[in-house]
Amino acid sequence: MADSKTETETEKQQNDVVANGLSSMVSTLMKDYDSKAEDALRSQHYLSSSLDRLTRELDQLLEDAPVPFIVQYAGKVSSVRKRVSTLNSLLKSIHRRLDNMDRMLSQSQTILHDVTDIRLRVYRDSKIALD
Q1: I need a surface site. Which of 2, 23, 64, 122 has the fewest CB within 10 A?
Q2: How far, in Å, are 21, 31, 48, 105, 119 from residue 14 at the CA level?
Q3: What is the C-alpha to C-alpha distance for residues 12 and 10, in angstroms, rounded to an integer?
Q4: What are the entry keywords (predicted)?
Q5: At what angle do helices 2-64 and 68-130 cross, to 10 degrees?
């Protein structure tokens, strides 16, 4: 009986080590991806602000001198602005998904510990019943 208790405790410790290792590894990856996503989001925001400023300046130029060449570039800038806005929305969506994955990982770690405890209790109870 002492051996089964030791085996059970050893299994629990091994399961805890594996769970903590996996959690630590995935948590580190999530933090790295989250950091990169935030950097990309800041960069997109800066780009979007710059394009807005450029659009305002081009609008002012169009009002002052409606040259066909300026109109052509204003259309291109407007097109780029729309694409940046779309990418910005996509990055926000990815960021929300990463946050959800991080939250689910935290919850699953708690569940894994609970399941491990239940398995160990069942194993211990079955050993006691057999003895």
Answers
A1: 2
A2: 10, 25, 50, 20, 13
A3: 5
A4: Coiled coil
A5: 170
CA distance 17 to 11: 10
Rounded to 5°, the CA angle 17-36-99 comes to: 60
Neighbour-count burial of 108, counting CB atoms closer than 10 A to its CB (0-12 exposed, 13-18 middle, 19+ buried): middle
Nearest to 92 by CA among 127, 55, 40, 21: 40
**In whole angstroms, what is the distance from residue 25 CA to residue 56 CA?**
46
pLDDT digits (tens, 9 = 90+) for 67-94: 676 677 777 888 888 888 888 888 888 8
Q: CA 70, CA 54: separation in Å to the nearest integer?
A: 12
Token pair 């097109």: residue: 79
pLDDT digits (tens, 9 = 90+) for 25-46: 888 888 888 888 888 888 888 8
